[in-house]
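User: Sequence in, structure out. Go.
Assistant: Echoing your sequence, followed by the structure tokens.
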Amino acid sequence: MRDLKVLQSRGREVHTAWSGMEVHRTFYFEPYEAFEEVTLILQGRTEAGADPTWTRFLPAKDPYFPTLFCNEIRVSLTDPRLALSTSPDLEVGNAADGNPIVTILDKLETHHESPGEGYAGGFITAIYRPLITARITGLEAEKFDWMDAKFNPVFKQIPWPTGLKTFVALDSLSAEARAALAAGAVGLIGGAALLVVLAQGGVDATIPPELADTITVPIFEFTIRRLLVHTPPFDAIAWCAGKLNSVDAPFPGTTLPDFAADTLRFDGAEIEGRLDALGNQWFEIIYHFSWLNMLSHDVFGLDGLPIDRAPVTWNHVFMRPSFLGISLSEIGWWPVVRNTDLRIFDVGIPNLLNGPATGGALYNTANFLDLFRIPQ
């Protein structure tokens, strides 16, 4: 790289629209060969340190709009006389005579523009665009990262749980139906359970197929984009995949929503390589999440007690717990845990001898800040 000797501002344009805004700043610089240095300063770069550490040099931000950063550059020469004719004339040599064969492709790939005296500079147009940025607290050293958050609201239809029953009031049945039910009651349900059901004025029946797929759950497909990442955190990505946020507000110090614990699931990442002006590689990463953003009055805790207006999490299942065909509680969103001792899925049911359910969560949790740490 050539040392930069002159850098002058020559113009500024601001473009605004409903879809966003851009700022175009024009600079004159000398010598022209210093364009690599100016480009790296404007667009930012990364540098490797002792493995596994690396450093990010941030791109230039606009002096008037601090949320706009330079992410595109256009360079032009100031000498209109520059042409490929300044290189040696095209000639066809004879390899046997030791004369090189110069082709048009050779000239295109090897020619370096050398401005003539008095025309030693160039113009750079730096384009600044807004990036939603956030300062992430709690990290050891690097506190800055891009968080171009995008939310895509979708709605997922889920079926009723297998074996769920509906309660049919006896007074809604005809006299013939009640008589048939009473005649075959013992075979239909069995013994004491039938007496309890009849005493309550109704009978359980299986949910009919036409009522399947009627539970609508709002899910936001949510992505975060990271730029200027020298080394992707492959270990953190593998560890967090398929896990949930372990705490409320997993991204403290940012403008992102305060996701309730267990409502944000990490679904993986897209990683694409990029090159700077000198050919050094860095990576752009897009993290994918699924946010279960739903509040309900029918949420139950592991103690089996209802929680008013609570968030439904990925560790809840819509069901009505039952034992040997007898319903034990209300229908709603119940937490499901893995009972590693019995190797079964367990639900917290109130008033049972063994108390609330214990064991590991249906989904494990992780600290999502590990996805953003820069090793120092």
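User: And one key feature?
Assistant: The chain has six helices and 26 strands.
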